[in-house]
Amino acid sequence: MSSLPWFSFVLLVLLLLALDLGVFNRTPRRVHARAALRATGFWVLLALAWNVCLGLMYQHHWLGVGERVGSRLSGYEAALQFFSAYLVEESLSIDNLFVMALVFRYFAVPEQYQHRVLFFGILGALVFRGIFIGAGLAFINRFAWAVYVFGALLVYTALRMLVTKDEDMQPERNPFLRTARRLFPITDDYHGDRFFVRIAGRLAATPLCLALVFIEASDIVFAVDSVPAVFGVTRDPFIAFTSNVCAILGLRALYFALAAVMNSFRHIKFSLVLVLGFVGLKMLLTHYLPIDNGLSLLVILSLLAAGVVASLVSKPTIATTDDTSVPSPEQPLEAYMQSEIEKPAPGSVSARVSTPTSTPEKSH
């Protein structure tokens, strides 16, 4: 395949991102649930449109796509692989959305600046995903046994998610955050939507920058699971990369729509465990019991649908203690999520953000 399809796709993505930040969200503002739902629908429709376009490209070999001897895919197979990979990546990103909410709560990021953090966070995620996908596919192509390593990793991750409970996030222990503190002094308060400011002639990072660093670091951790999962669906680098990009592009809107549409999907995590386990087993059995892509898509859709249905029909959990509060039937989830995001964490960076001083902290 020539570099033209890659260049064209990346150029299209950069154009969309430029329009997003430079035109539609040029002024910092709060993203309301209704606008977030419309934006989510737009990104999903855009991904489906690309899915159709991708199928036609592989079917008719536009721009030299799918012409590599020994690995040719029909348009139907390419479209099926893309949609399956997109669905896997989008579903595995749900946990990442909750991490974003916790990061914003920890650093007390004002609502009007959250979109800017997510924009640059996702821009960095696109770069890291491209690197991970390229390195992972090169590893698999070089060493045939690598597919079993990735399969075992997914099964292990699924089992770990099944037996462990969610723990409180502790950003102060994150190595990326520690490195940032050593490199730059940190201001106590926010300076608009700026990541860096100069105070007394010295460059200092703002808490907004810390939130961005932690979101980037968390995405790298999530990529360890999601990238191998995509390899369980497709080995085509163009399909793997474009499916990841299309899923990631919609994460910002999906995050802001979360409070409006996620009606306590408490059982979706179990569905994600089963999806990871299924894809891992598919990779482990790839040379012994190959599973058709159409059947794989059906299984993934069924597992996700089962988690959604089980969450909808189950009774909401009532708050038990002040520290582990969850939404009650009388409390709208949107209000609960907003209160959780804005609630300052005792002893955290959030407490310092609210102070009126702007003197840089000393690097730790």
Question: What shape does the CA trace take?
Answer: globular
Number of strands: 2
N- and C-termini, Cα separation:
49 Å
User: Count of DSSP helices?
Assistant: 13
* Mean pLDDT value: 80
Strand count, sense and closure of the main sheet? 2 strands, antiparallel
Strand-pairing-aware structural class: mainly alpha
The topology string of helices and strands comes to: HHHHHHEEHHHHHHH
Strand order of the largest sheet: 1-2
Q: What does this 3D model show about the protein?
A:
This protein has helices spanning 4-24, 33-60, 75-106, 111-142, 146-163, 175-183, 207-231, 237-249, 251-261, 268-284, 293-313, 333-342, 349-353; strands at residues 196-199, 202-205. The protein has one domain. It is an all-alpha fold and 364 residues long. Mean pLDDT is 80; it is low at 318-334 and 340-364. Strand 1 and strand 2 (202-205) form a beta hairpin. The N and C termini lie far apart (49 Å). The chain has a two-stranded antiparallel ribbon. Helix 4 (111-142) packs antiparallel against helix 8 (237-249). Helices cover 66% and strands 2% of the residues.
Can you lay out the helices and strands and say which pair or pack?
Layout (H helix, E strand, L loop, with lengths): L3 H21 L8 H28 L14 H32 L4 H32 L3 H18 L11 H9 L12 E4 L2 E4 L1 H25 L5 H13 L1 H11 L6 H17 L8 H21 L19 H10 L6 H5 L11
Antiparallel strand pairs: 1-2
Helix pairs in contact: 2-3, 2-8, 2-9, 3-7, 3-8, 3-9, 3-11, 3-12, 4-7, 4-8, 5-7, 5-10, 9-12, 10-11
Key words describing this protein structure:
364 residues; mainly alpha; two-stranded antiparallel sheet; globular
